[in-house]
Task: structure prediction
Amino acid sequence: MTLKRTILLSVATIVSVCVSAQTNDGLTYRRNALAQMMIYHSEDQFGKEIYEAFEAMPLSDKYDDHNVGFNVIDNDSIPNVKKRSHGLIKAEFGKSLNSSDVRKNAQMLEDLINKADVAKLMVAKWFGMEIDLDSFDIDKAVFSTELIQQRGQYNASDVDVELAEKTTRGVAMLSDAGEDLIPNTFLLINDMTYVTAEEAAAVAKSVMSVLGGIADAVLGSNIGSNVASLGGDIADSFTGFTVKTHSYLFQLQWNDSIAAIFYNNYYTEVPNPQKVMAFFDDPTTFRLKYVAHEYEYGGKTSLVGQYDRKELAKMSCTRSIDKNIAALQLAYEDFKIKTPVYQVIADDKGKVLGYTAKIGMKEGINENTKFQVIQRVINPDTGKSEYKYVASLKPQKGKIWDNRYNAVTEKAPTASLNATTFKKTGGGEILPGMLIIEGKYHKVTQ
Result:
């Protein structure tokens, strides 16, 4: 028989998009897992362009791609949040959402994705069962630990043997993965609206003679301070539109008790329709929880070069979401990315001059950003991963890679770099492959 159930289709229009994450640095390391969705506003003049931009947007290679086949929620089909017929509370031009609006939107989205069983799809993907509603056959469906082995950098044959023999190390590997991989699975839902060049220019013109710098607050940019000199030419200084993005971050709930329910009641490596159906029928165990929100308003719309509307939308949306992701990493520690040291730079005499890593402005790095260097080690007593502090780093002035979308095309000053160069500010020896993480990481031991 074929499993038949309703995901988001009864609540929202869903579009399936598969995006493959590529590792450009050739180094393997444990990433957080990330899926992304967007809210589609059919009422927006450029809603289609924003949808198409999101559809074409690459997922950051700093995260493992955990998209589960649904990435667009139709705002028309979301139940009302606040005295309207449908949809989320929307950020209107000149009026931002307040904290109460954000909480109501977040709660509605949490309810929506949990009714849609998105958490179950995420768990199923972790255990080798990706769901295609058109072809899924429950009589043949099985779980596996292959993806956990791959992302956890375990030797598959070793895990199979040790699990089969019920060894302490084999159990520790799965427990390790449960603690270090599965709960660090996130869903980011992006609600993107925009201000057109014409809207912004019209507001700037209407206030320039009286309000001057107050336009900064209205537009969320530095236009107001320059408005007097721009005069009637202000409309010509814009290209396209400015994207405004509210990003809502959700985390997959996974702990020892949830893992025990899954392994004891549902996990099967041989066809067992009863167990698989019981997994999908479980009403409360597998959930996504709202954990953080970020708002990014890309105030500068003037761009170098000529862009058509679609390309401009893709660039604006990509950069807007990247800014939110960078901010969320600072706001919510479990979401922080860990990036390997790519190279140790030394002179002919072996003196270390610096270190490089494949992160940059897209991840929010500036001259004042501070990093820890950490090393993942296996505790011989428990068989589990631990993170040890190694050293501290800061980016070197003028050597921060501009890796933002289309920075090369725009000939940004540091876009030609292929990594950011760091200098050590304290600690011990740093080797390639050790991990760097922004700020202080509470899971690190000295």
